[in-house]
Amino acid sequence: MAKNGKPTTGQLKPITKIMVEGFKAIRKRTILDIRPITVLCGANSSGKSSFLQPLLLMKQTLEHPYDPGPLLASGENVKFNHIREMLCRDGKPKAKSFSVGIANGDRPIEEVTYAEGPDNSIKIESSVMYFGDMLHEISFEKVPIISVFISSFNDFTKHVIGDTNQYDPCIIRNKCFLEYHMIKKNRSPFEIIGDVWIKRDNIDIINFVHLPGFRGNPERTYPSSAYSGNRFPGRFETYVPSILADPANETLRRQINAGMATLGLTTAVTAKRLNSNQIEVQVNRRLESSKSNPDMVSIADVGFGVSQTLPVVAALAVAVENQFVYIEQPEIHLHPNAQRAMATLIVEAANRGVRVVIETHSSILLRALQTLIAKGEMPHEEVILHWFQRNAKTGLTSVESVTPDECGRTGDWPVDFDDVILQGDADYLDAVEARRVKS
User: Fold this and answer.
1) Is 210's pLDDT higher than 90?
2) Does residue 429 lie in a domain region?
3) 46, 271, 273, 336: which sits with the fewest CB atoms below 10 Å from its CB?
4) Which domain holds residue 32?
5) Do 195 and 264 fall into the same domain?
6) Closest CA to 398 of 158, 103, 10, 51
7) What percent of the chain stands above pLDDT 90?
8) Contact status, residue 164 vs residue 155, Cβ threshold 8 Å
9) Using an 8 Å Cβ cutoff, are 344 and 262 in contact?
């Protein structure tokens, strides 16, 4: 932990693009720009969650304590039984593989392609990685790699090991990635430890913070969860009680409490360790910030919105610069006033450098973000909105994207938010008028 109880990190590179192809309803190669605030909108089952699921698969694979194979299909972040459930089934021919890639900062997209292997397993078909100033595709079927890659790799290794003639190239699978290694001649690939090797930079995925749409039931006690720095394996909400109970996090606790007060939910949230394994979380029932006479009760005894929103507020507070925070439905169980206020917390985190991706159905939250842009509290070019639509015939997903202007305006985007609100008002007025006519 750093000063003021803030987790520290190395120099994280911002995730600037995400690419998905052949996964579930996303058949065509689709690239989404990622900004400090990225909004995913669309009707239910339009493909919003599907787009982030490949990264969640990689996250839970990298975090697993032992090697689960190329992908851990069923884990804490996302669950599948078979790779065929991941592959796009619509269209002809059916997809035989899917690809996922990310771009870190100004670098090109690096991607991995997964396919069905023998005995219903998952295999890595190929891996495109950035080395030197070029992208290179590697796979077990393509050995040796193109001569340009061999040459550039040898140029690099000369500075580290000297005579590269003593080494042979070798491709090794490291969990969900393929990596290019140099091993000493006449040695088995199983003896590569200690030899020179190059792998893709996957720290951004490891530092991925994920908050699902349902963030657990409120409990009387929570298990203690250890964490290191800004890494939170699995789902983030499991760490919130431990973050609140940590004596070193006083500044962070104040920030979380200020966020909950901004939403109008409570002025104080505390946590205390009952023993080495159990933590109790308490909430002030009174909305005034009275330190002398708070009415603290178990989080299980207050509205469901508190337990669902506290992890969101904590994640936005604890995240560091360039950290990727993915929040599904931050507005869930929130009153409209609190949905509006949630936009303020998201903007505050983005202005600190956090990369916030939200998946939302809330027109209120969206309008509040537009308002903050118009007020000049968030640069419009640092916000992007992606609208997901599913073709009624094919079931395939398409995405339209827009950057708001300096007044927060998005033109005709999103397609139906304003239309639904206006239609609802019109239907109500028509019903009232019809009743008056009858009477």
Assistant:
1) yes
2) no
3) 336
4) 3-205
5) no
6) 51
7) 60
8) no
9) yes
